C-alpha cells in the first residue's frame, strides 16, 4: 500500500510540473465593464492598446481616456469603430448593433469635445433605469467641473442645475410633463433645448413606436391611427427641440438593437419638418459594425442586424385562400400526429 501511495504521489507531482508552464502562459482577461467588448473588438481585427480610441478620436480629452483605461476599455468595439469618427465630424446617424456592443460610448465619446453648459447633450431614454444608466456612463467622461442632470418621473433638477449641466439625461414622459407645466423649471428646460448640440434617442423603437395593422382594412386603419392618435412624448420632444434650437450644427443620433424600417421612416418624417431644413435630403444614415455586411451571421452569436445579401419577398393571397391554406396545414399536421 505504501509503495502504491508513493507511486501515485510521484505521478501527481509530474502532472503538476507538466501543466504549470501551460497555465502560466494563459492570457489574462481584464475584469470590469467593457472587457467583453474589448475582447470582441480585438477578435474582429480592431487596433488594440490604448491608442485605439485616439486613432479614431484624436481630440478625445485626457480625462475621458484615463476613465476608459481605468475601466479596462482600451479598444473600440466594431460599432464604435464604425461610428466614432462620423459622429465627431458632425453627422447624424442611426446606430444598429446588438445589445452590449458599446453603442453608448459610440455617441458619448465624440460628443465630449462639442458639449458644454452652453452647448448641451440631450439623452432621451424610454425608461428611468436607462436614463440613469446613460447618466452614469457619461459622468466619469466629462471634464472636471461639468455635470449631468437627470430628469425622470419623481426627479426634477433645479433650474440652476439644468442651466449648469452639460448633459441632460431624461425620459421622454418626464420631460414632456415638465415642459407642459409653467414655472422656472419649464423655462430652464426650454432654454436648454435652445442650447442643444446633440440629441440622442436611445432605443428608438421604444421611443417612436409604430402600431401595426393587418388585413384588408390595414391601410385605412393605419391612416386613421396616424390622423387621430397623439404623437408619442419622444416625438413631441424631438419636434420641440429642433424648432427651438437654431444651431446649424445640431446633430440627431438614434440607437437600437432592433432598428426597424418603420421607426427609421418615422424619424425621417419628424426631421423633414425641421423649419431650417437641416436634414432635408440628408436623413441620418444607418451605421452597423463593418464586418456584419460581409460575414455569415449564422456563426456570430446574438447577431441582430441581418446581412445585406438577404432578400425578402412575399406572395399576397386573398383572405379566403389564406384561411383555407391555414386549415389544410392544421389538418395535415393533425393527421401526421395521429399516424405516428
Helix vs. strand class:
alpha/beta
Low-confidence stretches: 16-50, 297-303
Report the β-strand fraction as a percent range. 5-15%
Largest sheet: 7 strands, parallel
Shape: globular
3D structure, described in words:
- It is a single chain.
- This protein is an alpha/beta fold.
- It is 47% helix and 10% strand.
- The protein contains 15 helices and seven strands.
- It has helices at 2-24, 35-43, 51-56, 62-70, 78-88, 103-108, 128-138, 159-164, 172-180, 184-194, 204-207, 218-228, 233-244, 261-272, 319-339; strands at 93-96, 120-125, 148-151, 167-171, 196-202, 251-256, 285-287.
- A seven-stranded parallel β-sheet has the order 3-4-2-5-6-1-7, sandwiched between helices.
- Helix 9 crosses helix 10, helix 9 (172-180) crosses helix 13 (233-244) and helix 10 packs across helix 13.
- The longest helix has 23 residues, at 2-24.
- The chain is globular, with a radius of gyration of 26 Å.
Keywords:
single chain; 340 residues; alpha/beta; 7-stranded parallel beta sheet; 15 helices
What would you say about this model in short?
The chain is of the alpha/beta class and 340 residues long.
Layout: helices, strands, pairs:
Blueprint: H1 2-24, H2 35-43, H3 51-56, H4 62-70, H5 78-88, E1 93-96, H6 103-108, E2 120-125, H7 128-138, E3 148-151, H8 159-164, E4 167-171, H9 172-180, H10 184-194, E5 196-202, H11 204-207, H12 218-228, H13 233-244, E6 251-256, H14 261-272, E7 285-287, H15 319-339
Helix pairs in contact: 9-10, 9-13, 10-13
Amino acid at each position: 500500500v505504501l509503495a502504491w501511495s508513493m507511486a501515485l504521489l510521484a505521478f501527481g507531482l509530474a502532472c503538476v510540473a507538466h501543466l504549470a508552464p501551460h497555465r502560466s502562459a494563459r492570457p489574462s482577461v481584464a475584469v470590469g465593464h467593457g472587457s467583453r467588448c474589448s475582447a470582441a473588438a480585438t477578435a474582429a481585427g480592431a487596433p488594440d492598446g490604448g491608442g485605439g480610441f485616439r486613432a479614431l478620436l484624436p481630440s478625445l480629452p485626457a480625462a475621458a481616456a484615463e476613465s476608459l483605461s481605468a475601466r479596462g476599455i482600451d479598444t473600440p468595439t466594431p460599432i464604435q469603430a464604425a461610428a466614432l469618427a462620423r459622429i465627431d465630424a458632425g453627422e447624424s446617424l442611426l446606430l444598429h448593433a446588438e445589445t452590449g456592443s458599446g453603442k453608448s460610448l459610440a455617441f458619448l465619446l465624440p460628443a465630449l469635445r462639442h458639449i458644454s453648459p452652453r452647448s448641451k447633450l440631450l439623452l432621451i431614454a424610454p425608461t428611468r433605469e436607462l436614463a440613469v444608466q446613460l447618466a452614469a456612463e457619461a459622468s466619469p467622461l466629462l471634464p472636471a467641473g461639468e455635470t449631468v442632470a437627470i430628469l425622470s418621473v419623481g426627479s426634477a433638477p433645479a433650474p440652476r442645475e439644468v442651466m449648469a449641466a452639460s448633459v441632460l439625461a431624461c425620459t421622454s414622459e418626464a420631460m414632456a410633463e415638465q415642459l407642459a407645466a409653467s414655472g422656472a423649471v419649464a423655462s430652464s428646460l426650454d432654454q436648454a433645448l435652445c442650447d442643444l448640440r446633440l440629441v440622442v434617442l436611445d432605443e428608438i423603437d421604444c421611443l417612436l413606436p409604430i402600431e401595426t395593422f393587418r388585413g384588408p382594412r390595414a391601410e385605412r386603419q393605419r391612416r386613421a391611427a396616424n390622423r387621430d392618435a397623439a404623437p408619442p412624448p419622444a416625438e413631441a420632444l424631438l419636434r420641440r427641440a429642433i424648432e427651438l434650437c437654431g444651431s446649424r450644427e445640431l446633430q440627431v443620433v438614434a440607437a437600437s438593437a432592433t432598428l426597424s424600417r418603420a421607426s427609421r421612416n418615422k424619424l425621417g418624417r419628424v426631421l423633414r419638418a425641421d423649419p431650417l431644413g437641416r436634414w432635408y435630403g440628408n436623413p441620418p444614415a444607418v451605421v452597423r459594425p463593418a464586418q456584419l455586411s460581409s460575414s455569415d451571421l449564422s456563426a456570430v452569436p446574438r447577431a441582430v442586424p441581418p446581412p445585406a445579401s438577404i432578400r425578402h419577398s412575399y406572395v399576397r393571397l386573398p383572405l379566403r385562400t389564406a384561411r383555407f391554406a391555414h386549415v389544410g396545414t392544421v389538418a395535415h399536421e393533425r393527421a401526421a400526429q395521429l399516424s405516428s
